[in-house]
Protein 1
Amino acid sequence: MSRLHRVTIEINGEQVTASIAARVNLIDFIRTEAGFTGSHLGCEHGVCGACTIEVDGAAVRGCLMLAVQADGANVVTVEGLAGMGRAKNLRAAFLAENALQCGYCTPGMLVSALEYIESGESSDRATIRAHMAGNYCRCTGYQAIVDAIAAVIESGEGA
Amino acid sequence: MTGPATIFDKPNAYIGKSVSRSDARRLLEGRGRFVDDIQLPRTLHAAFLRSPYAHAEIVHIDSTEAETAPGVVRVFKGEDLIGVVEPYVGILTHLAGLRSAPQMPIAVDRARWQGEPVAMVVASTRGEAEDAAELIAADLDPIPEACDAETALDEDAPVIHPELGTNLAWERLVEVGDTDAAFSRDDVHVAERTFRFGRHTGVTLEPRSAIAEFNPAEGKLTFWYSGQAPHMMQFILAKHLGLVEENVRVVAHDVGGSFGIKIHTYGDEIATAAVARIMGRPVKFVADRFESFLSDIHARDHVVNARIAMERNGLIAGLEFDDLSGIGPYSMYPRTSAIEMNQVLNLTGAPYVLPNYRARGRVVFQNKNMMCQYRAVGHPIAMAIADCLLEDAAAGIGMDPVEVRRRNLMADDGYPRTSAAGMKLDDLSHQRTLQELIDTMDYSGLRIAQAEALANGIHRGIGFVSMVEVTNPSPMFYGVGGAPIASQDGASLRLDAGGGLRISSSITEQGQGTNTILAQIAAGVFGVPIERVTVATGDTDTAPYGGGTWASRGAGIGGEAMLLAAHALKEQVLEVAASMLQTTVSALDIREGMIVDGGGARISLSDLARTVYYRGNELPSDLNPELVATRHFRVTGFPFVFTNGAMAAHVEVDTETGLVRILNFWAVEDCGRAINPRLVEEQVRGGIVQGIGGALYEECIYSGDGQLQNATMEDYLVPMAAEMPDIVVKHVETPTKTSILGAKGAGEAGTGGAPAAIMNAVNDALRPLDASIWRMPMTPERILKALGRI
Ligand code: FES
Ligand code: FES
C-alpha cells in the first residue's frame, strides 16, 4: 500500500481534510473525498477542460494537479460559484442563450468564461473563441456559449 | 367540446416559443446527477484488461497475482461468465441474410479487436482495480488479422468467425429503372468518383458509465447508466442475465452526451451487471478516455465507388454506387451494424427525382472496434454520394449548383410520393428551403466576392447540400425485425393536489431539451403556467413503456403522446369542474391554472384537486374523477417521417498548408412544427459542428495490424471553439400529417448534411486548380496531396 498523505484543502469555503495516496488528482479528491460532484472528468490529461476549477483564484485543470499539491489551497468549483453568488449573470446568460445541452462541460466552461470576463477582455467573438479553445463541448457547437459570454460583457454589469 | 386538432387554432402560450430549459439551472449550479456522481455503500469498482491485439487466441489468463493485490476482491475471465450471461447476437430478421456470431461480455477463446475485454477486476477503488489489471498475466497468441475492410473478402483473408465461412456480414442490392441504359446514353455527362469516409466516433464528454446493484432478497437488479433507451436495456439485462423483466430497473438520470453512442450493448456494461449479481454488492464502471476510444462504437468507415449520369439540361439520368463498409468483428447487439448501410441505400438521392438507381452495399467483418449507429446514421454518406456527384456533374456541364438542384429536387406540391429506393415521402419542402437558403446567404454577392478573392490568389468555395433526415421511426425500423426496441412512447400526466402537473414520459433527456418540450406541450395544451409542470423521465420503474430518445424521435413521438395525454386530462378535469360548477364541459376552459368560463375564473385547479383528493364527499356519488391521464403514440402509415433541409458552406482553402477554414455556414431546416425554435436551432448547430468534425478532423486511425493510433483526445481531433464558425439557422415549417402536433425530428440533420456541403465547398475552391478531394476527413495532408503538392 502506498504511503498516505494528510492534506487539507478549502473547497467552496469548507475545510476538507483527508489522508490520501499521492497519486490522487485534485478532481478525484473534490468529487470523492469532499463529495462536490459538480466538477467533471472528461479526459484526465488536460485536453478537454471539463475539470476546470479555481485554485487560489486562478483557473486550473483539476485533473493535472495532484491533491497533495493543493494542500492548503483555496478551491472553488461550480457549486462554490453558485453558493457564493458569483457568476450569476453568466449563469443567467447561459440559460438564456441555451449555452448548455447535456451540461457535462458546463462547470468547466463557466470557470473558463469567468476567468475571461473578469480579466476585462473584450466581447470580440474571435477573442472569446480563442480563450475558450481549451474547453471541449460535444453538444452545443460553441456558438451559444460565445453568445452568452459576449452578452455578459456587453451588458457591462460583470459576471 | 374542442378536439385536440383545434389546439393550434387558439393562442398557445408555449408551443412554438423559445422558452428556456428550467432544468438547465441545476446543471449550471453543479447539481447534475451523472452516473459517476452516485456513490453507493460498499461499491466495487471495475477495471478491464483489454486485448492489446486485433486478433488473438486466448491461451491462458493467470490472475493469481492480481487477486492478491491491495483492494482486489475478485478477477473475472470470460469463462467465468459462461452460464451467467446468455450470449447475444446482433441480427434482425428484416435485414435478410445478416449474419453475426454469438458474443460474450468478456472474450472467451479469442479476442477479435484491440480493446475487447479479456478480464475484469473488481476492487475497492478504481485505482486499485487498474493496478491489479496490470498484474494479470494474459497469454494471448496473436493470429493473422483481417483489418482492412477492402481486403476482408479476399480469398486469403483470415476469416474472423470460421463458422460463417467468410467475412461478409450482409449484402443488399437496390435496383430501380434501367441504370445501364442511362449510363450508356451518348447524350449524358458521367461523373464517377471513389469516396472514402473515415471511421470516427462520438467522443461524448461524459464517458460511458454504469452502476449495477443487485438485491438478492428481492431478486432485483438496479442499473443506473448513462444511456438513452432504458426500456431496451431493461429487456436486454433481463434476458441475458436470466431475470424477469419487472425485476430489472434501469435508470438514466443526467446523461453527458450520447449521440447514439450510448444506445448499444457493451460487454463491459453487461459484465458490470453480471458481476454485481454474483457479488451481491454494487459495481461501478466508468470508462476512461482510452477505453472510450477503444470500445465506444465507431461509425462510418465506407468506401464507395459511385457515378452519376446527367443530361445536358442538368437532369439526373441515373445514379449508381457500390458501398463497402467495415463493421468490426461482430454486428452490434441489438440494433445491428447493418442499419447504417441500409440507410445509405435507402437515402441516397432521396431529395431528387431519380428515374434510374442502382446501389449495392456490403458490410464486412474486420478486426477493429465495432461499428454501429452514431448520430445521423448513414446520412453523411448518402448525402455526400448524391450531392457531391451532383455538383461534380453540374460543374462538368457548366451549370450552377443551385440551378441543378432546382431542376432535380422534387416539387414541393408533389407529395405524397416515393423516393427511388421506395421511401414514402410526404410534407417536404426542398424547393422552398433551398430558396430560403439562397436568400439568407446572399448567394450572388458571395459568388462575386469569390471571383475577386480568386483574382488575389485566395481560394474560396461555396458548397451546398439538399437533404432528407429520417425521423420519428415507426415499428418498421427495429421492432419488425425482432428487436426489443419500442417504437411507441407513452406520457402520463397527473394533476396534483397543489394544482401542479407531474409528467412522466418514456422519452429521455440527454441535453436536447426533451423535458422542456414535454412541459411546453403539457402546459400549453392543458392550461397551466409552465413553472407548475415537473417532468420525470428515464426510470423504467415509473415511466410509461417506450423507446427513449434516438433517431430524432423524442419530440415527434413522445411529444404527440404528451399532447394526447394533456388533452385527455383536460377533458377529465373539465368534467369534474362542470359537475362542481353545475355547468357543461363546453362552457369551460382551463387557463393559467384556473377553470374559466365566459365570465372569467371560477375555481383554481388546486381547489378542484383538493376537493377530489380530500373532500370527495362534496362530489356526486356517480362522478368518478380521474386526475391522471396516460396516452401512447406510434407512427402509422409511414415507416419514417422524413424531414428536409438545405445547407451551404463557405470555405477558404489555404493551398500552401492545406488547411480549410469555414468562413460561414447556413442551414434552413424544416422539421415540421418547431415546438421550441431555439432548441431546434441548437440541435442543428451542434449537429453541424459534429458534421464539420467528420468532414475535416475526426478519424480513428488504425495501423495495418489493427492498432488504434490516436486513442487520446490530444491525438484525435475534435472541433473546438476557435475553429468553428457562427452558424445561421432558419426554419421552414411543414407539419407532418401523421400527428396533431406535426413535429418531426431535428437532431441529426446537421451531422447528416454538413459533410457533403463542406466537401462541395472545398472542391469548389479547388476547381480552378484542377484538383478535387473525395475523402473525409479532408485533412491538410490529403488536401495537399489532392493539389499534388506532396
Ligand atoms: S479532465 Fe481535465 S482537462 Fe479533461
Ligand atoms: S453541453 Fe454537452 S458537452 Fe457541452
Protein 2
Amino acid sequence: MSIAVIDYGAGNLRSVVRALQHIGAPLTITSDPAVVRAAPAVVLPGVGATLDTMQSLERLGLVPAIRDVVASGTPFLGICVGMQVLCEQSEEFGPHPCLGIVGGAVRRFPAGRKVPQIGWNQVYYAPHAAGHPLFGSIADGSDFYFVHSYYCDLNDARDIAATTEYGVAFPSVLVRDNLAAVQFHPEKSGRCGLQLLTNFVAWAHVS
Amino acid sequence: MVHGRGDEMLKRRIIPCLDVKAGRVVKGVAFVNHRDAGDPVALAAAYDAGGADELVFYDITASSDERAIMVDVVERTAAQVFIPLTVGGGLRTVDDMYRMLRAGADKVSINTAAVLNPHLIADGARRFGSQCIVLSIDARRVSEPGEPPRWAVFTHTGRDPRPTGLDAIEWARRGVELGAGEIVINSMDADGTGGGYDLELLRTISTVVGVPVIASGGVGAPEHMYAGLVEGHADAVLAASIFHFGAYTIQAVKHYLAERGVPVR
C-alpha cells in the first residue's frame, strides 16, 4: 500500500514526490478521491494561494475525501498551503472558506517585515508535542525552509505542535491525532526536512 | 497570538552560484576531487553537504541543444539535492521558465529578457507565483563623484555591456510591482574585483523594495559578506569564486558571520 500524494496542480508536487522517493517511501500520485480514501496515508502538497487551492480541490471533488480521511484516522500530512487550507477560512484575496478541519484563520503577516518570508527559520516545539514521533532525531530549534506570505492563526493551542517567529510567533507545525501539517517545505529543508518526511512515513506505518 | 522577538531568527542566506556550460561547471571547483570538479550535480551535492542555504545554476550555454542538457542537469540535481535551486541564464519565455521549474528548479532568475519584455515578470508570477520569479539586475554607477548616486541597468554584461536607459533603483521597484519575489543586485563596478559589494547600491535597493534582496558581485572575503548583510541590509549573498577555489568554506564564512551576530543556519 502506498501513500497518496494528492495532485491538484500544486507547484511543489514533483519536489515532494522526489523527496519521498529519495527516502524510499512507496507512493501514488493521484487526483482520484477513491484512491485518496483507500490510501494508508495521505500527503497534501501546496504552494501559492489558498483560494486557487480550494477551487482546485473542489473542482476535482477532493474536498469530501480529504475531510473523510482525516476524520477516519488516516495519517495525513499537509505542506505549506496544504496546511493553510485545513483552517476554517482565509483572508487571502478576500475572505473565503477553507476546509474547516481545524479551528483558525489564514492571515497575512503584519506590516513591518519583508513578505513573503523566504528562507530558513527555526522551529520550536510546543512542550506538549516535543516528544512526538514526527520530531524524532530533529533537534528543537532546527532550521527549515519557508516561503509564505500568510500563516495559520490557530484557535486551539493543543493543535500547535511547533512555532516559528517572524514578526509574530506563528504555528509552523500542527498535529492533532492522525493529522499533521507543516508551514515550511520539508522537501526543500535539507537533512531535517528529509528526516521529518521519514518520521511521517514511519509514524504512518507505511513501508 | 503571541508577539515574537522579531525576525532575527530568519537566517541570512549564503548562496553559491555555479556557471554551467553544456552540462559542465565552467572553471571547475577546487574543493572536490578532480573527477567531479566540473560536474554540477556532484558540486551541488557537495555544497548542500557543506552548508549552502540555496544553490544557483547559471546557464551560460549558447545553443538550444545545450539548453536541453541543462534541463537534464536540473532534473538530476533535484533528484538528490533537497535545498532550493534557482536556475538562470537565457530564459526568455514563460515556457522556458516552465521547463526549468518542471525539471526541478524552485525559482527562475531572469535578467535581459525582463528588460526587453517586463511583462515576462508579471506573466511568470501569475502562472508560477512571485516566489518563483527572481529578477536579476546588473547595475553600474553612472553618477559623478559629489552627485547623488545613480546606477544604470545594463544587459549582456559578459561580453559587450549594453546600456538600457533604465535606472537601477526604479527598475527594481518596477520589477517588484510586476511580481518579482526576490531581487539579485549585481554591481558591475565591484564584480570581479574581490573588493566587496557596492554597499550604497545594496542599501538603496533594500530600502525601496519590500522583497528579499540578494547581493552579488565583488566578494573576496567573509568581511565583504558581513558588510553586504549588515551595512547593505541584504537578505542573502551570492558568491562564486570565493567558494569554488577553496579560499573559504561555507562553514567558515558562517562561523565568521555568527561570531559577529549575523543569524546563519
Protein 3
Amino acid sequence: MTDLTSLGVKDIRDGVAKGDFTAREVAESFNAAVAEAASLNAFIVTTPDHALAAADKVDAARAAGETLGKMAGVPIGMKDLFATHGVQTTAASHILEGFTPRYESTVSQKLWDAGAGMLGKLNLDQFAMGSSNETSYFGNVTSPWKKAGSNAAMSPGGSSGGSSAAVAARIAPAATGTDTGGSIRQPAAFTGICGIKPTYGRCSRWGIVAFASSLDQAGPMARSVEDCAIMLGAMAGFDPKDATSLQMDVPDWEAALSSDLRGKKVGIPREYRMEGTDQAILDSWEQGKAWLKDAGAEIVDVSLPHTKYALPAYYIVAPAEASSNLARYDGVRYGLRDLPDGVGLQDMYAATRAAGFGDEVKRRILIGTYVLSAGFYDAYYTQAQKVRALVARDFARAFEECDVILAPTTPTASFPLGSMNEDPLTMYLNDVFAVPASLAGLPAMSVPATINADGLPLGLQLVGRPFDEQGVLNAGLAIQQRAGFTAKPEKWW
Amino acid sequence: MSNYRIQGATGEWEVVIGLEVHAQVTSNAKLFSGAATAFGAEPNAQVSLVDAAMPGMLPVPNRECIRQAVRTGMAIEAQINAWSRFDRKNYFYADLPQGYQISQLYHPLVGEGSLLIEADEKAGIPEDKVIGIERIHVEQDAGKLMHDQHPTMSYVDLNRSGVALMEIVSKPDMRSPAEAGAYLRKLRAILRYVGSCDGNMEEGSMRADVNVSVRKAGEPFGTRTETKNVNSVRFVMQAIEHEAMRQVDVLESGGTVVQETRLFDPGTGTTRTMRSKEDAHDYRYFPDPDLLPLVLEEDFLAECRASLPELPDAKRKRYVEVLGLTPYNARELTAEVETFARFETLLAETAKATGKGEADVATQVANWSLSVAPGVIKALGDEGDPANATASAQASILAMADKAEISGGQAKEIFEIVLKTGRDPAEIAEAEGLKQVSDTGAIEAAVDAIIAANADKVEQYRAGKEALFGFFVGQTMKAMQGKANPQLVNQLLKGKLG
Amino acid sequence: MSVDKATVAKIASLARIRMDDAALEQMVPELNGILQWVEQLGEVDVTGIEPMAAVIPNTLRLRDDVVDADPLTGGGKRDDVLANAPAAEHGFFGVPKVIE
Ligand SMILES: [Mg+2]
Ligand SMILES: [Zn+2]
C-alpha cells in the first residue's frame, strides 16, 4: 500500500471517496508523521483527536452514501493565526499563550464543513511579522530542506513557516497560510511547494488574528496547483461578518484548471530585475518565460514603475495598522497579564505588552505608532497610501497589456536560521517581489520552479487581475507541468 | 446678543461655549455587532465577541444607525456627505476593548448645519439665535467601569461597548449657560421628533462634553477646557457657570488656563481635572482598515428625507400661520413630541366632531390642551384617571362647547366626571343636566321678567350707565340657573335694553 | 527625520510598551534605520493622487438592525468573553483600580 503521507489533497480526497483507503487511515498516518517530526517545530500544538474525529465523520458519511465535501478526508495543518474553537490560538506570541477561543474562524469552519480535519496549530512568525520564522515565541521552525553539504538549520520562510515546513516535509498534505506581504508565497518558494494568496476579500478575515487588516488574506499551501485550487475553493466565499469580504460567487477553480495558455499574454515587469537578486533566480525566471511560451502564451514586457517604493510603503502601512490592531492585547480580557505589585491600569498595560510581545512585534508597533502620531501622519502614512495607490495603478495599467504577470517570488533561496538577524532591513528585503501584489490586493501564487546549486528550491510568482485566481492557477499549472519539480527534502528529522 | 457677563475684579468677561453632544442612536443592535442595546441588562450580558474585541473579530456597520444619523443631519439642514469613512481613535483604557474607538474624524457622515434657539426674555435670551453645528459623526460608545465594588479592582462592563452614538459638535457660538441650555433642549427635541435618539439623559442616552473658555469683549478666544459627560441640562448650565468662574479666577490671579479634560461633580456643581485621560492627547487617528468607504446611494438618501417628520421650527410656524395660534401657545405645544402629538390628535378629532376646519377650532383646542385640561387633571389629582382622557372624549366635550351646548364651566365639570368614571361626555351632559339653554323663548321670558322688575336700572342704563349691563346678564343667568347660553343672553339683552 | 531616545520613550509610552534604558538605546538605531529607508517615499511625485481607500474597489456593506441575527456576532456571550479573562468576578472583567 502507498505511503499515505506521500499523497496530496486531491489524491487523498479521491482515494477516500473511492474507498482505496479510509479517512481514518489517512489521519492516523499523518498524525504519526507529525509526532515524528517534532524537531521541525512546525506545530505549536498538535490535535490528533481533531483529525481523527473529522476522519471518522467522513468515513461514516461515505458509508451512509452521503455526498462528501471538497476536502473530505484530508487532514490539514492550521496556521496558529486562525481562531479554533477549544484549541489554543496564540499567533505564536507569549501574550496569547493559553488563549482558547470559544469561536471558530470562518475559513477554518469552512474547511471543517468541507470534510477536512486538523492535525494541529502551525507555528509562524509572531503575529505573522517576519520572513524566516524566527520571531515565534515558541521557537524557530526548521525547514526540512538542507543546503547541499551543510547541516545548518535552514529557514522555512515566514510568516507561514510552520505551514511550509509541514507541507514540504509531508507531515501535512496541505496547510492554511496567511499572506500580508508575502507570507504565503515566500515560505512556499523557500520550501518547494505551492501557495496562493487570493484577491483581497476572497477569504473571510473573521477569526484570523489581525496583523494588517487592509493586506491580510488567507490562502492554501500545498504541493500542487490542483491541491491549491481545491483547498482555496473550500476556504473562499462571501462572509457577512467581514465588511471587506467580496460579495461574489466562488468559481469552481479546480474544474476550470487548464494549462493551455494560447491567447494569453504574460507580462514581464522590467522593474523586478533588481540588484541583489541571485543569478539562479534570474535564470529560473527566464526558464519560466520559456515554459509559459511553450504553453501557448505570448510574452510581453510590462512596466511597474513604482515597484521600488512598494516595500517602504508596506513598511509604513502594515506597521501602522498593526500598531492599532495589536492594541487589544492589554491583559484585560484574555492572554497574558503582567501586574507588578501596586501598579495601576496603564502600567499593567505597559508591563503586559513588554512581557508579551517579541522584539520584532515591538519594533513594528513602535514604527506604526510613530508614523501615525501627531505631526508625522501625513508625511508617512498619507504619503505611503498615495504611493500604494500608484502601485495599484501600475498593475492596472500593466493588466491592460497582459493577463498575468510572471516574476520571481523571492530574490534569494532560503538561508540558514540566524544568518540574517543583525539588521531588520535585510530581512524585510526578502519580500520585495511579493509585497507589490499585496499592496494592490491582487491574487498571486508561488509555484516551485527548480533547485539551485545548493539543492534548495526556487519559486516563481504569478500575479493576476483582481478576481482572476483562475488565470493565476492556470499559469501556475503550466509551469508545474513543465518544471517537473519532484525534488523533496531528505528525511533527517 | 447675549448680555451674560462674568463680573471679575478686572472687568467683564464673556463666556464662549461649544457643546459636543453624544446621543445614543435608537437602534435594536449595536453599531458594529448584533448585540442588543437595551438599557439595564446584567453586566456583560449584551456583549458579543466583536464588542469584547476578541482576536480576529471584525466590525460590520448597522444600516439603521447610519440612517438615523443621516436623518438627524437632514433635520438640522446639514450637508450630508455621500462619501464618508470610519477612522480609529487610538488610546488605551479599560472601557475600550479594542484599544481604539471606531469614530469619524477626517470624513464625517454629516457636515455643517445649524439649529435655532428661540428668544426667551425670562431666561436671558433676548432674541432668536442660530447656533452653528460643525458636524455629526457616528461612533462607538465605550464600556463602563465600576470603581466601588471591590477594594483593589475596578470592574468592567462592556454592555455599552459598541452602542452607536452620534456626536453632534456645535460651533463655539453660545455665550451663556442659558443659551447652552436652550440649545440642548432644542437639540433634544429635534432628536426626539426625528426618532433618532430617545433623549433620555438619566439613562445616558444624551451626554454633553462642554467646551468653555472666557475672554474680554473683543479679544480672541481663550484657552478652553472640556468637561466630559455632563448628563443633564441643569448640570451643563452649572458646569459652564462654575468653569467660567474658575477660569476668570485663574486668569485674574495671573495664571493661565490649561487645555485639559475635566469632570463635573453633580454633588457640588463643580468641575475638576480628570486624571486618567491626561496623557492621551495623541490619538493617532487613521482610516479603519477593517471598513471600506461608506457610500450612500441616492435612494437611501431619498428614503431618509421622505421619512422625516415635520420638525419643531416648521411646526411652530405652521401653528401660528395656519392654525392661528399665539406664538406662545405654538412654542409650548411644539416643545415636546408627546405634547404636539396629543394636541394634533385632539385637533383632528375635534375638527371631525365639529365638522369645522382645524384652523377654526385650533385656538380652542390649544387653550384646552395647555391650560383647561391640565388644570382639571391637576386639581383632581388621584381621584381622576388620566387614561380616561381619551382624544375622542375630549373632542366630544370641545364639540359640545363649540356648538354652545355646554358652557366653559360645564365643560370642566363634564371632563371631571370623565376623568373619574370614564363615562361618555354626551351621556354625562344629558344625565347630569350639564347643558346650557339655547332656547330663545325661555331666555327671552327671563329677560323680560328682569327688565320689568328693574325699571329704575333700565332707565339708568339707557341714560348712559353702561356698566349696568353686567348686572342684567348676572340676573338673567341667575334666573336661568347658570344654564343659559351667554351669547344668547347678551344678544337678547342688547336688543331689549336698546 | 530621525528619532532620539526621548522620542522612542515617548512612542513606547504611547504604545504602552514598557522599555528600560537598554531597550531604548538599542531601539533608537533600529528605528532610525527603518525610518531613513522608508523616507525614500518622499521622492515619489504624488501630485493629484488620492490615498488608497479600498484595496479592491468596493464600498461598505451595511448590516440589518437585527439583534443576534448571527450567533457569532450577536450578544449574550458573557461566558465566552469572560472564559479567558485573567480576572473575572461576578460577571465583570477585573482590572487594577482606576482613579478617574
Ligand atoms: Mg469629545
Ligand atoms: Zn465622541
